[in-house]
Specification:
The chain has five helices and no strands. By secondary structure, the protein is an all-alpha fold.
Length: 174
């Protein structure tokens, strides 16, 4: 009877772990999907005469689009870049975390099954399988939301481009 009870407990623990892992994956992948869409819209608006009215379906990897957008922001919006460089550079970490969440197996080792769910959920290919707690996950969500806000702000600057500091704006009026 003990073996059956032990097996039932292990199965219940594995279900709780997988449920929390699905929650983390779903929420974070949704955040990154919004970021990816914002990056695509920025690139579409910059390189398309039709602008935002065109649907964007990027066949270019997110990392390549991210690099291009950051290069454009740094070049064409140096003051904006200066104020938001740290947040925008979080994209590298966000993409790496997203990829590990999306493609890593959930840790259901004996140690993970005996650990209380409040102590986190581990992903085999992320951080050596160390569990991700709700607080750590929330920190990732905050970073993703801050990046999203920066990209939204950047979209509102279109089609404006900052003048180089060595060129003055033409005078206004007579």
């Amino acid at each position: 009877m003990t073996d059956t009870t032990d097996d039932d407990n292990r199965i219940a623990a594995a279900r709780r772990i997988h449920e929390r892992a699905r929650y983390f994956r779903g929420r974070f992948l949704n955040h990154v999907a919004v970021i990816e869409r914002d990056i695509s819209l920025i690139l579409t608006n910059l390189f398309s005469a039709a602008g935002a009215s065109k649907r964007t379906r990027s066949r270019v990897p997110l990392a390549a689009n991210k690099a291009l957008v950051l290069e454009i922001i740094e070049r064409d919006y140096p003051r904006y870049w200066g104020r938001n460089k740290e947040v925008l550079n979080w994209l590298d970490d966000i993409i790496a975390f997203r990829n590990k969440l999306a493609h890593s197996a959930v840790d259901i080792s004996d140690g993970a099954l005996s650990r209380p769910i409040e102590c986190g959920v581990g992903f085999v290919d992320w951080n050596g399988g160390a569990p991700i707690t709700d607080k750590q996950f929330q920190d990732w969500e905050v970073k993703a939301n801050m990046v999203s806000s920066c990209l939204e702000e950047r979209k509102r600057l279109l089609p404006f481009k900052e003048l180089p500091s060595d060129r003055a704006a033409p005078p206004i009026g007579p």
